[in-house]
Amino acid sequence: MAKRALAIRLFIAALLGTLLIAACDFPFLRNDLDVIKARGELVVITRNNFACYYESVYGETGFEFELVKAFADHLGVSLRISIKEEEAQMVDSLLQGEADIIAAGQLFGQAAARLVAFGPGYLDVRALVVGRRGGPSISEPADLVQADIGVAGNSANIEYLHALKEAHADLSWKTLPDYSGEELLQMVWNRELPLAVIQSHILTMNRRFYPELIVQYELGESRQLRWAVKPQDRHLLRSIKEWFALPATQDLISGMVTHYYRHLEDFDYVDMARYRKRIQDRLPLYRTYFEEAARENGLDWQLVAALAYQESHWNPEAVSFTGVRGIMMLTLDTAKTLGLTDRLAVKEGIYAGTRYLARLHRQIGDDVAEPDRTLMALAAYNIGPGHLQDARLLAREMGQPDHTWRGVRDILPLLQQKTYYQKLPHGYARGHEAVQYVDRIRTYHKILNMTTALDNSDASHDGG
Hints:
This protein is α/β, with parallel strands linked by helices and 464 residues long. It has 20 helices and 12 strands. Helix 16 packs across helix 17 and helix 16 crosses helix 20. It starts with a helix and ends with a helix.
């Protein structure tokens, strides 16, 4: 009996081993979602740009990156990013089993769409013809016939043009597969290209960098961005659909849209054009002070300069109706705590304001990660640290995250409502104004960062 029992156990063990080997040799015998979980890693294809994924001073970031990272966390696996810029490369890599998801922040053309399966939509985008003020004026499709149009290798944008060509046979365009949408915008800005076809979210992300750009024409209907998976990965696709349907996921997406896009929608052409001019005319007078003060306090000098521009437009003699003054617009009481006796003194004012921002940054605490900590410090510079603490307290009471800028950003406007502020330690505050304040500094900072990078690149080329 013992020998028979042993033989049965050996047979079962051999059978299980055979099945395990078969499962490895024949992936279709395994649940595709279980394969990902067993691997412990979700591999996602995306693009390396401002809208999808890039490495900031605070680490990896980007709309698509944050979204797929949240999904990977939901699955309990790590995330590995695979950068592919060409649509054909993305689809081929996915179908070859080299990745699990394409989350590239772009619309797919019909040929690619037939090869993959799509998850739920999460962001409305349109194909736009973008030009520069003073360039070709487009009021109807026929006006495009005589214009030079550039389009990147995105097949969806090219399909829109082909559809238009059916009614306007003389329509032509240049396909520039080696250039990204962001690069095409820069070419239009530099007058190297009269018109370019760009998807709307890419324009939103970059328009403030190029205030002369305008939308000349809209191609086709609005469509939604979606993730793509292999058609046979039914379990993964079902998991994606279920995750997107969760209220928590919808709240996350809403907050991310606000964080990445909404603050850019209040576009002011005159303000942006004036700001770019003052980067050239005024900033050089004070740049050394910003750099030195920021270095001493462990801050980014461009962020400090952006804050100063929001406060005073780099005018050292600025005075507000509330009595704050100087290039950093400090109150009298704050200036005294910083040892500043003359708020109109340029160098001393910049150093004092930078110390104050660094102090607020320390007060936020290490429990708040970057860039949220810096964004909260900026809000505190405007509204006061007490009111910021009130907003964080209220966020906790309302079940919102108090350690993220997204969570606090949504709460700050409530400080103007009696229902809320009368119960808070510091009372009423113009919270909506603080939100706009931070949004504008973020925009000024990004424009200054890009402008400085371009200037450094030009200087390097000239020196070479």
